[in-house]
Amino acid sequence: CDLGLSTLGPFSQTGVVDYVIFAVLLAASMAIGLYYALSGGRQRTTQEFLMADRSMHCLPVSLSLIASFQSAVAIIGVPGEIYTHGTQYWFIGCSYILGLLIPAHVFIPVLYRLRVSSAYQYLELRFSKAVRICGTLTFICQMVIYMGVCVYTPAFALNAVTGFELWGTVLATGLVCTLYTTMGGLKAVIWTDVFQTVVMFAGQLAVIMVGVQRTGGVSEVWRKVWEGNRISGLDLNPDPTERHTFWTLGVGGIFLMLSLYGVNQAQVQRYLSSRTEKEAVRSCYMVFPSLQLALALSCVMGLVMFARYCGEDPSDKLGTSSRDAMVIYFVMDMLQGLPGLPGLFVACLFSAALSTISSAFNSLATVTMEDLIKPYFPAMSESRATLLSKALAASYGLLCLAMAYLTHLMGDSVLQVALKIFGMVGGPILGLFSLGMFFPWANSTGAVAGLGTGLAVAFWVGIGSIFTRSSGARPLPPDCTAILNTTTAIHTALINHLSLFFSRPTGLKRFYSLSYMWYSAFNCFTVILIGLIISFLTGPMKEEDVTPGTIYPLLGKLLCFLPEHLKKKLCCVTPLGQTVSKMMEFKEQHMIPCHRFKCSTSL
Ligand SMILES: CC(C)(CO)[C@@H](O)C(=O)NCCC(=O)O
Ligand code: NA
Fold this sequence. Notes:
- It is a single chain.
- The protein is mainly α and about 600 residues long.
- Among the domains are: about 55-410, Sodium/glucose cotransporter; about 555-603, no CATH class.
- The protein has 26 helices and no strands.
- Helix 8 packs across helix 17 (about 380-410).
- The chain is globular, with a radius of gyration of 24 Å.
- Pantothenoic acid binds near residues 70, 71, 150, 260 and 418.
- This is Sodium-dependent multivitamin transporter.
- It is found in: Apical cell membrane.
């Protein structure tokens, strides 16, 4: 195998074409932002700025749905994972089936029919204002931390290989994104997502095609990855501390998907911007093939990369041990001498990042406005509210630059960091919504206590795992030794010190070694369990006090084969006993179309 590592920084050697392609991406995104700033309702109402006038079709919505959580982290992280550990990760594709069917048929109907603008409004309808605020604050934390990883990843990787100025790139990404998000609102965010998703697929496809050709064709790539032991079979090991098995990926992954596609504001906002409920459900279905394609492209890229380097480790020659930087190196190595293609890949990386960050900005502006500001300033004028939403989108943009710096200080693989954040903070939010939708007895005190406990346990395990690292990366033979990241002496000393503390109790060590793919499920169940216990201790909610339409009759739907009278006895979550006046009040306030989930009739 010829590693061909002599020429670093191929991007700088290629012509202007590459820079032009990259500039076109940024310019086109800005143009879309400008277009929606000047057309339609000119972003003068929060309905348009945050909800796209609830007029979207399913195709743009579905492409935008994939774009939200498919960032440069996945484009760089997944090939790195496949290169080091083989194709086991690919089994996460199994979780997409239930991970999208459940949002489409459980979460979308409930949230769409309530006609909320923020997913957290649901929490107030179901529980109380306090729960809504706790939910909103948790979501804000999740997205702000995640955004840091998203902005940082492409900038870091490019810098490691091509010498692109790191903080300059971070700043440019953040600023461009802030500008078009602030100008064009959700319409611009959705349509730039569409355009950027296409660029993302094109860039990945180009790398794979050129890579396969330069490595000697499909059969040669296959031979090398097969001999290199990179094709993993179905691993049915039930051990929950095993990092990647069918159970952690295929089952644990479902909960990860639910927390992202079921209750995350970024996605809920897209469902709600659809013209009809049917259109929203359809867009959720359409995510499935595209998400499988995205997964396949990034996994195949990892395999081609393996075939290219034959399991040898070019990291010492490269001067960095980071798997993530190596993926960029591989791409630039493949594409050098082909004018335009390195530029296309850089555009692909930034498309992926921009589409995620813009969704995050817009959803953060929405929840801050709808959940934290509007309820307390009901008299605020529409123009002032819109101006404030724009200021919010812009200030979250600046905050995310600060978070990028925090990510800089962490040393895990970026994919694992991102999925851990989803599990540690998104898992408890999923638990909170599940508690509300499926358990009519849960009350507000239980919900707050459940969320608090869920977050505390999540961070306990999450932080504990950093310092034990026993479940961590064991690379497959031939050895592509994963070397710990470049950390400063102080950083290392701190870790050593803390790991002594964390590794003392052997029982706990096993607990800390829980596979990060189980985080979402585990944290979701903690919230439900504690929520139910506290609810029963403090007096469970009575059926007639629950707002109509906030409960999904899960048990009733699952037991649809039972005879009617038994079903009534078992499942009846019929918020129909609701006093008429209270329901009218809700309907007036929130324009709930008179759809109620009634056990005996709707099943
Ligand atoms: C979240 C899934 C599993 C599905 O969308 C995938 O896109 C992924 O692995 N994303 C990693 C996080 C990121 O790309 O930012
Ligand atoms: Na994206």
